[in-house]
Design brief:
Strand content: 5-15%
Helix content: 40-55%
Distance between the termini: 49 Å
Number of strands: 13
Largest sheet: 5 strands, antiparallel
Shape: globular
Number of helices: 16
Order of helices and strands: HHHHHEEEEHHHEEEHHEEEEHHHEHHHE
């Protein structure tokens, strides 16, 4: 993959990149409708593929929050056509890397010397590159290390980038203005945290120490003496990313073991620690040669307020859909309903959210659950697609939900998708049962 020698960092440079991309997308639409005049059977697949290519190429050059938003959207199969999902998923660990002179410049800024003067060896080419930073491999005293280096200017461009991305997301992906306004602050806060490698170092050490008793999970050791606010150094974990590992065709028992480790890891964080690794995309996990699950990134961590936790996880209780529960009051507390809703709106939104919590809460209401059941996921996508097209949802003047739910929902959506890729059948009840 071709290396990138510079990243646009000023507001003008980054805004002009978006404008040029917009012009390309406009051209794609003109081509599409020109073909449609002569052949009414022309589908939008080619248009989506061209737009996805142009948007990804632009975002991958900009890096940072622009590319991170693409990554987040690629995890939500209800928002994007497949062409966007497939292309945007590359941002998880396969963006164009930064050239080596810029890497050296970052080291000199924080340590006063290049990486070769710190480590016994240091790979000049990135091993992988994502939205916020890229990873190089180093060796020191016989120990193999992963060195994560943040792209220049990423932290400073978050606020201005999100202002530009917001109307694009609203128009292209049909996300309502009310929803965007409610959640954009939460996204901005988390992205700013993700650019603070000193905070990530602190959280990584804390969360791994409090999770190291879990079965079949391994964490890297972190090295504060070689880390800074833009550089993070940890042990290198040898192994394969989940998709690569699945290509080796592991047996069902091993896939179940890895799936159980994933579920238990998230259950422990959410229900015991009340803070969670909220970025469950495949690039953040490694399967080792002895089939242990390696967790390699704690950049995005969501702290869960107790009052929200207690309300949210009532939705997963076994008898939540029975008449005895005052679902209307709970939905009001969680923001699914608002005090301004008419009686007709309340009936509509109660029906929609009842259907969704029945479907998404099924794993919690079972002793065992087969995440390899593709028909279950087909139902999720069908409901999500149907709900997103409802005019009552699209035209709602109020955002539905709670800002704290954004990253919790994203976490579970990502977790479910990972377990589906693993085709894992796991224990989700009994000792995993939620106590609120």
């Amino acid at each position: 993959m071709k290396e990138q020698v510079r990243i646009p960092t000023s507001k003008v440079q980054r805004a002009s990149k978006f404008v040029k991309t917009g012009a390309k997308i406009g051209g794609n639409y003109i081509k599409h409708y020109s073909k449609k005049i002569f052949d009414s059977s022309v589908s939008r697949d080619e248009l989506h593929a061209a737009n996805a290519e142009d948007i990804y190429d632009s975002l991958s050059e900009l890096k940072g929050s622009a590319l991170k938003v693409a990554q987040m959207l690629s995890m939500d199969k209800n928002v994007l056509p497949m062409a966007y999902q497939s292309k945007f998923a590359l941002s998880q660990y396969s963006a164009p890397p930064l050239s080596y002179p810029l890497v050296v410049k970052t080291f000199k800024k924080y340590f006063g010397k290049p990486p070769e003067d710190i480590f016994d060896s240091f790979s000049s080419k990135a091993v992988n590159a994502a939205s916020i930073g890229q990873v190089h491999q180093a060796v020191l005293d016989g120990r193999k290390l992963a060195v994560k280096i943040q792209y220049p200017g990423v932290a400073d461009s978050i606020v201005s980038d999100l202002k530009i991305v917001k109307p694009i997301a609203e128009r292209m992906f049909k996300i309502s203005a009310a929803e965007l306004n409610q959640y954009i602050g939460e996204v901005q806060e988390k992205l700013i945290e993700e650019t603070d490698y000193a905070l990530e170092l602190e959280r990584s050490i804390d969360l791994t120490e409090r999770s190291d008793h879990l079965d079949h999970i391994t964490f890297p050791t972190y090295y504060p003496e070689f880390s800074s606010e833009r550089i993070l150094v940890m042990d290198w974990i040898d192994g394969l990313h989940i998709k690569e590992w699945l290509d080796s065709r592991p047996d069902q028992e091993t896939r179940n073991k890895i799936g159980q480790a994933l579920w238990d890891f998230y259950a422990h964080q959410i229900h015991s620690l009340k803070e969670v690794h909220a970025d469950p995309h495949p690039g953040n996990f490694i399967i080792t040669k002895d089939n242990q699950l390696g967790i390699i990134d704690f950049g995005c961590v969501k702290e869960i307020p107790l009052d929200f936790y207690e309300q949210y996880f009532k939705l997963m209780e076994h008898d939540i859909l029975e008449v005895k529960y005052d679902l209307e009051a709970l939905f009001m507390k969680l923001g699914f309903l608002t005090p301004n809703d008419t009686k007709k709106e309340k009936v509509f939104f109660m029906s929609v959210f009842r259907e969704m919590i029945e479907l998404l809460g099924r794993p919690f209401r079972s002793e065992k659950f087969d995440f390899g059941d593709d028909s279950y996921f087909a139902q999720i996508y069908e409901v999500g697609d149907r709900v997103s097209k409802m005019k009552e949802i699209r035209n709602s003047k109020s955002a539905r939900g709670n800002r704290h739910g954004l990253y919790i929902n994203r976490t579970y959506f990502g977790l479910y998708n990972l377990l589906n890729e693993l085709k894992a059948e796991i224990s989700t009840g009994s000792e995993n049962e939620i106590l609120v």
